[in-house]
UniProtKB/TrEMBL annotation:
Organism expressing this protein natively: Halochromatium salexigens
Transmembrane segments: 20-42, 75-96, 158-176
Membrane-topology descriptor: Multi-pass membrane protein
Record PANTHER family: ATP-BINDING CASSETTE SUB-FAMILY B, ATP-DEPENDENT LIPID A-CORE FLIPPASE
Protein name: ABC transporter ATP-binding protein
Gene Ontology cellular component list: plasma membrane
């Protein structure tokens, strides 16, 4: 249990510890006032059953005289009213504590999901290669809520109820030790026994809840991402079937944990009812009759009203925390392991771009993907002259995209260095290098926003430079289409995944996006493969027109794309096999390039 509490503490932002102490203080005051509410019924009932006690009991007689009461009846009314006020204050404080716990927990939920989201965004690119995006979104949006509602909230409730139950048991011990011990031991052992029997099972279903939630999210994300292929292959039932099992397990585990949390309540209510009858009979039997017994019965009745729900809440909180330990572990695993995290650029702060003025050099670069034994790039050395256009070609799997990812500063080389002029590319200047780059990937990601927002991706509407947007769109051969064919021109909203756009139009949005910042270095990773011949020619012409003023790196399947390049690099199985101009390479008998050109490689 203490281990679980330590894990829940680790979920909190240390700056919020102070608030936890304030909450604990409020809980202590509440427990004290609620216990006083229980105790306050005793003098009232004592005077009610035996008014003569005012003369014999030292406390009552002193109060009677100090407050200058004239009749015992008035004193009785006063005692009743005082008990009522103390009791109501306790209840009001309890409501306040609940409000504070709920509010604090929900704000922590927001804070935790924001922290996790920021942590994910800080991760190196290689992290995203090995993780399912549906799983990450689920952790940020749903599992943080589960960890807080099922971990932090019950932990707070546990603290408040342990304080309350402890204070009331202490009061009962002060009034009648034997009976108090019987009540505490009976309640404690019933709940303790159920918990000991159920805890391993709770752990198991808690772990499977996290696992089944992951599975159902993955299946749902796949089903929607691949809706077209799934429809054509008629695999809808297979996906429904794959969804059915984990979501049923998930629902069952949630239900079972709630059922178990509430189960003892019914047994305890029966035991409590019988117990109160036994207490009444025990107290009436030879303990001084109704006058002595009535205040005790009253106090026990009121204490029971507080203590039974308190024990029940302690049990349900402990069970809930046990069930959700796996959810807390799941979040902590990602919050904790931040190796290789990068600093996020400060908002609004302009980075000084690291622009190559003479060359980009790769020196003996080797790279393995973490999940693979085979090197994707091996001892690669080459020099790209600044403000030239170069092409990378090679058979599928040769390492072209990997090389681009290394050059983009997204993947760190295992061995070797990349230099921008004479500056080695390091963690400290990668952001500056990236500020000098425009990148057009193979698959263009589109946001569900306007065309202009997509071109200036990620910028708030107010900060979009519409002149730069139009310039980029013109260069990408997109402007005419936008103004002539889209209803709101640049303001037209593109549906999710750009379903309203053709593959070529999507690709041109990607190209315009890369050109928006007017970068000094532009990467095209198979970026024109979705364009028809005429559009590709127009776009390539525009790109080649930029050469001489910008450094352009093209990865291409279609060799015609790289024909005008100043230098073409041929990669084969992660190594640089050949390099040179088109004419030199094509004329080289038996070269890889010749084989590629004739479609043999
Ligand atoms: N995320 C990854 N994890 C493990 N191995 C990978 C990963 N991505 C690529 N590889 C491997 O690295 C090698 C180079 O892949 P890369 O995508 O760079 O080739 P490519 O030349 O761009 O291929 P294509 O022309 O088909 O896009 C391949 O053997 C590939 O299987």
């Amino acid at each position: 249990m203490f281990k679980t509490l330590a894990k829940i503490k680790a979920l909190l932002d240390p700056r919020d510890y102070k608030k936890v102490f304030i909450l604990l203080f409020v809980m202590i005051v509440t427990a004290f006032v609620q216990t006083a509410g229980v105790a306050s019924i005793m003098p009232f009932l004592a005077v009610l059953s035996n008014p003569g006690i005012i003369d014999t009991n030292i406390w009552l007689s002193q109060a009677y005289e100090a407050l200058e009461f004239e009749s015992k009846d008035r004193f009785l009314y006063f005692l009743g009213a005082a008990a009522f006020v103390v009791f109501i204050s306790g209840t009001a404080l309890q409501a306040l504590t609940q409000w504070a716990i709920t509010r604090y927990s929900h704000l922590q939920q927001y804070e935790l999901s924001r922290r996790l989201m920021a942590d994910y965004l800080r991760r190196p690119y290689s992290f995203f290669l090995n993780r399912n995006s549906g799983d990450l979104a689920k952790n940020v949006l749903q599992e943080t809520a589960q960890a807080i509602n099922g971990g932090l909230m019950p932990a707070m409730r546990l603290a408040s109820q342990v304080l309350l139950a402890g204070a009331i048991v202490a009061l009962l011990i002060a009034i009648y030790p034997f009976l108090a011990m019987v009540v505490a031991i009976t309640l404690g052992s019933v709940y303790g026994l159920i918990y000991v029997l159920a805890r391993t099972w709770l752990n198991k279903i808690g772990q499977d809840r996290v696992q089944s939630n992951r599975e159902r999210f993955t299946v749902a994300a796949e089903a929607f991402a691949g809706s077209k292929e799934i429809r054509l292959l008629g695999r809808e039932f297979d996906y429904l079937e794959r969804y059915r099992n984990p979501s049923k397990r998930f629902a069952k585990h949630q239900a079972n944990s709630i059922l178990l949390q509430n189960l003892p309540q019914y047994a305890i209510e029966a035991i409590a009812f019988g117990g109160i009858l036994l207490v009444v009979l025990y107290l009436m039997d030879g303990h001084g009759g109704i006058e002595t017994a009535l205040p005790l019965i009253g106090a026990y009745g009121l204490a029971g009203r507080q203590i039974i729900p308190a024990f029940q809440k302690i049990f349900s909180s402990v069970a809930q925390m046990r069930f959700n330990t796996a959810a807390v572990d799941n979040i902590l695993a990602d919050l904790g392991s931040q190796s290789g995290s990068i600093a996020l650029p400060q908002r609004g702060k302009q980075l000084m771009p690291l622009i190559p003025s003479s060359r980009i050099t790769l020196n003996d670069i080797t790279y393995h993907y973490p999940s693979s034994e085979e090197a994707a790039l091996r001892k690669l050395s080459l020099t790209i002259q600044a403000n030239t256009t170069v092409g990378f070609v090679g058979p599928s799997g040769a390492g072209k995209s990997t090389l681009v990812d290394l050059l983009l500063g997204l993947l760190p080389a295992d061995k070797g260095e990349i230099y921008i002029d004479d500056q080695p590319l390091m963690e400290t200047n990668t952001r500056n290098w990236q500020a000098a780059i425009g990148y057009v990937p193979q698959h263009i990601f589109l946001a569900d926003q306007s065309v202009a927002s997509n071109i200036a991706l990620g910028l708030p509407e107010s900060q979009i430079d519409h002149v730069a947007v139009e310039r980029a769109a013109r260069l990408a051969n997109l402007h005419e289409f936008l103004v002539n064919e889209l209803p709101q021109g640049y303001g037209t909203i593109i549906g999710e995944r750009g379903v309203r756009l053709s593959g070529g139009q999507r690709q041109r949005i990607g190209i315009a996006r890369a050109l928006y910042r007017d970068p000094a270095v532009i990467f095209f990773d198979e970026a024109t493969s979705a364009l028809d011949n005429a559009t590709e020619r127009a776009v390539m012409e525009a790109i080649h027109n930029l050469s001489g003023t910008k450094t352009i790196l093209l990865v291409a399947h279609r060799l015609s794309t790289v024909k005008p390049c100043d230098c073409i690099y041929v990669l084969v199985r992660g190594e640089l096999a050949e390099q040179g101009r088109w004419d030199e390479l094509i004329s080289h008998e038996g070269s890889h390039f010749q084989k590629l050109a004739s479609g043999l490689d």
